[in-house]
Design brief:
By secondary structure, the protein is mainly alpha-helical. It is built from 12 helices and 5 strands. It has 2 domains: about 90 residues, Orthogonal Bundle (Arc Repressor Mutant, subunit A), CATH 1.10.10; about 120 residues, Orthogonal Bundle (Arc Repressor Mutant, subunit A), CATH 1.10.10.10. The radius of gyration is 23 Å and the shape is elongated.
Length: about 240
Amino acid sequence: MELISIVEALLFASQEPLGVPQMCAAVKETAKDILEAAGEPLEEGASRIPEWVAPLAETTEEQVRGIIDDLIARYDAEKHAFTLVERANGWRIAARGEYAEWCRALYPGKKVQRLSQPALETLAIVAYRQPITKAGIEAVRGVSVDAMVQQLIDRGLVKIEGRADLPGRPLLYGTTEAFLDHFGVRSLDDMPNASELRRVKLPSAEEGAPAAEQRHEQQLSLAPVTPSAAESAAEES
């Protein structure tokens, strides 16, 4: 039994994304359990168990990362309808994006809910400048964002991060892991122009300069990406 087959089985069996450390630990611990159950030492040379078991007890995270690359290359070369995608919490098997419509047919009663332009603009400000207060968002957009923020919270894309150390202790908002999954990024650092846009000076709640608001609103834009079929199915189920 090869390590590549074991890693593939772990990814296939898991309902949630798996991190490299998780997969590495699962392989090592299982191999050690097999060796101990056979009453043999962990070193190579055990006589009553297959010779390939002992090396698995020393599996490294670098080996697992290499296996993931090999699996992706194999799926591409063999033109499979699925591949491996990395998300915030790890790796998962997912159908390729071009098969999204076919997979969506499994859920005929579900409709994909797209974000409106005002919701996207509000979400972009939160994503790039989190944690941020509602007043901070309104200073950039120039309009009330109560409804937009609540909509994003209801969609699971934005959450309350705590309270700001300001008069009145206003709520702070940030994005969720569902946000990363929806837009197909592993972390906030993977967003377009993340480091640059985080340094852009935004108008404060007291300034409210219309020209600045329009300029920064255009800069802080976030275009949606087409989710994979597996992600679409997960969102709709």
